[in-house]
Amino acid sequence: MSRVDHMDVAAYALGVLDEQDMERFEEHLASCWACAAELETMVPVVGLLSDIDAESMTALEQTQSNQVLLDRTLVAMRTHRRRARFRQVLATAAAVVVFGGLTGVGFATLSAESSTPNLGSGQGTNAPVDPPATRSGNPTGPGVGGNKQEGEQVDVTDPTTGVEGTFFLDSRDFGTVVAFSLGRLPGPRECRLVVVRKDAGTEVISSWSVPQGGYGTNSNPSQLSLAAATSSKLDDVKHFQVVQVDDKGKASPLLTVPAP
To answer: Cα–Cα distances in Å, from 12 out to 19, 29, 47, 99, 132?
Structure first.
């Protein structure tokens, strides 16, 4: 380990060695703890020296013969460095203030959003909330799943066939609207809804087929829900009748619904 190698620490730190000498010193530095420690102590000095440009160095060389000029130059350089550090501090403080302000705004926004109840997609804070839909008294009636069914409700069960039904009879200007649901109706079979008028006239206003599992049965708990209309006024109706029709077209009553 030569004396020259140890003296290269400052030159290496300032970056004045050529490429070959730099490689040689780095090989030496890898095995010399003394040079490594000395190089570490020079890092802050090198950082300060990096602030001095070539023009400043030239000015310093020119002041070596004039002590007064040298003092003025050093004072000017110190003042310049203090101002530079002060500007850096101000810039850092401003960045902190701006970041803090943005963070505060973001936090306030997040707080406001978290305090606003989620009213669902497409609804604002002032969006009206629809009231819950009213339903008929029969949980399996035609009004289930929508608004309250209009018309007079008639619940009936045939004592002979066991078929049960819920009917809503709504009188209109054009006649009568009939919304109904049927249960305990086994299948398979063909059925019709017939209007029997007080003048003994009849009218078939709906027809349907019942599958093997039926409706409102153990095989198929779901009830049948249908709607129909007739030109007969409700005051002219004696009763409604659900009938089954065999292969020969003969009708047999399954359920009779009296007009209210």
So the answer is: 10, 10, 14, 40, 83
